[in-house]
């Protein structure tokens, strides 16, 4: 009976993987199709990638996407890391309260966060555009950075910073030379997650951007009803970037852990 359940669970898992990944593989596969057909592969070609890079609208969308993701990643990583470090030294009541508030954007549906940010900018009479889109991305990326950094901070010896201060370090030196080196792996992981979340965001970007400013997701959505194979190439680019980021997020901690184990064994 147990063996039967094990086989059924494996089949169920395989079907889920097929359901999620076949459409992605399909898009990437047909991005190399030599014809406009989305159902018949007529031959390998890179002409849709060439057409994509020759399209000014697409290149602007890529530029806005990358620039927004880079700015949002840098700012959210700095703010999220400093906030997490500050909370680790605060009282438990305040720490729990801020943690609950920090979790709200991740627990809320994206549409709720998007509408809330749109109403916020509208109430302040702020003209929506690239700046508001970047601010919105920073707002929803910070919780992911804090979620990555906070568990590592809890594992640190709470006396490390006190020892550094007793040895003559300033609070800034204690943070930059003692605490941050201990949690840099979590900071990098949080930054990569923030970048991937910002790079492929659609809902929040749609509600907080203005006319003439669109990222890749918005551009794909606005052209999805047209038979345009360059959209396959553009979608494939998103898949490549997110895949690379996810590989780095998973592989870097693994390599770091192996290195630490090797150092311990050598010692």
Shape: globular
CATH-scheme architecture: Orthogonal Bundle
Average pLDDT, all residues: 82
Percent in helix: over 70%
Q: Uncertain spans, ≥5 residues at pLDDT below 50?
A: none
Identify the CATH class. Mainly Alpha
**What summary fits the major beta sheet?**
none
State the secondary-structure class: mainly alpha
Helical run tally: 11
H-E order: HHHHHHHHHHH
CATH topology: MetI-like fold
Residues in β-strands, percent: under 5%
- By DSSP, the count of extended strands is 0
Rg = 23 Å
Roughly how many Å apart are the termini?
Answer: 49 Å
CATH homologous superfamily descriptor: MetI-like
Number of domains: 1
Architecture overview:
The chain is mainly alpha-helical. It has one domain: Orthogonal Bundle (MetI-like fold), CATH 1.10.3720. It contains 11 helices and no strands. The protein is globular, with a radius of gyration of 23 Å.
């Amino acid at each position: 009976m147990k063996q039967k359940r094990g086989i059924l669970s494996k089949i169920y898992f395989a079907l889920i993987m097929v359901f999620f990944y076949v459409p992605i593989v399909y898009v990437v596969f047909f991005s190399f199709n030599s014809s406009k057909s989305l159902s018949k592969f007529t031959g390998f070609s890179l002409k849709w990638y060439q057409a994509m890079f020759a399209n000014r609208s697409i290149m602007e969308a890529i530029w806005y996407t990358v620039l927004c993701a880079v700015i949002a990643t840098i700012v959210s990583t700095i703010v999220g890391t400093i906030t997490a470090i500050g909370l680790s030294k605060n009282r438990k009541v305040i720490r729990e309260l801020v943690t609950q508030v920090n979790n709200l954007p991740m627990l809320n549906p994206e549409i709720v966060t998007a509408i809330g940010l749109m109403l916020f900018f509208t109430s302040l009479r702020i003209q929506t555009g690239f700046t508001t889109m970047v601010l919105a991305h920073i707002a929803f990326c910070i919780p992911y950075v804090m979620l990555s950094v906070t568990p590592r901070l809890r594992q640190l010896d709470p006396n490390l910073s006190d020892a550094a201060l007793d040895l003559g370090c300033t609070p800034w030196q204690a943070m930059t030379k003692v605490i941050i080196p201990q949690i840099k792996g979590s900071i990098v992981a949080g930054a990569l997650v923030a970048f991937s979340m910002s790079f492929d965001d659609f809902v929040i970007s749609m509600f907080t951007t203005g006319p003439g400013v669109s990222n890749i997701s918005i551009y794909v959505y606005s052209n999805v009803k047209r038979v345009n194979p360059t959209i396959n190439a553009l979608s494939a680019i998103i898949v490549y970037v997110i895949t690379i980021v996810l590989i780095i997020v998973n592989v870097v901690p693994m390599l770091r852990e192996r290195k630490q184990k090797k150092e311990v064994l050598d010692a």
